[in-house]
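Morning!

This is the sequence you dropped in the shared folder:
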Amino acid sequence: MARLAIGGADLYRAEWISRGLSGAAASATAAPPPPPNFTRLYHLCGAAHALENIQKSRLKVSTFRESNDPFELSVFFSTDPAQQRRLDQFVDDVARRFGVVCFSDDWRDPVYWSHYAERHRGIALGFDVLEDDFVLQVEYVENRIEFPNREPEGRDVDIFLGTKFESWQYERERRIMLKLTDADQDGGFWFERFGPKMALREVVLAPLCHEDITAIRASVDAVHRDVRTYRARLAEEFFCVIPDERIVPARTP
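The structure's back. Tokens below.
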């Protein structure tokens, strides 16, 4: 499995392993690991949106109604019509008041790039995100769950907000849940700003991204410190995406 993930020079893999993180992570050969109490998460999008996000130091908050999964917020069901009506009203209320910023805990899966980064022409933004109640890890299940006949508990809320059908598990998704009233609004959209809990650390150009790496690196360095900007490539021996060792910057002291 280690051979599957790596490729290229082992610039930082030992540090990732010493932190208790996977040495098979795509970034382990290209970027330092996150500090204690933080996790490295990746947001993939089209190149133009990624560059705007970098310049404005923000990520778009998605609403549940615009999700590409029609079963969002639908993990629970009830055979009791009255209970189902209450559940439907709760779903409508959450969808109206809350939004989500979606990440993955790795970027080596080529299907992920195909679906979220303009068919391998976009960019992955890597963030150090504080590991606390700020982040919800998505769980993947085979079947929907009958809603319990009792008052919802904290675990029920996590299941409700962070459960998807098992076919989505390639995304390895983590979520930041936000009240839309707490997010920045611009042009009819909502945004979460970069900050101490969500700091930009990597900018990874997709294998087919047409943007000039030198220009992108200069643009990133002008507004953000301590960010590694490089290009990815398709691995020769395996079905995965890895850092292009010819483009990865030299290790920093």
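Headline: The longest strand covers residues 38-45.

More detail when I'm at my desk.
O.
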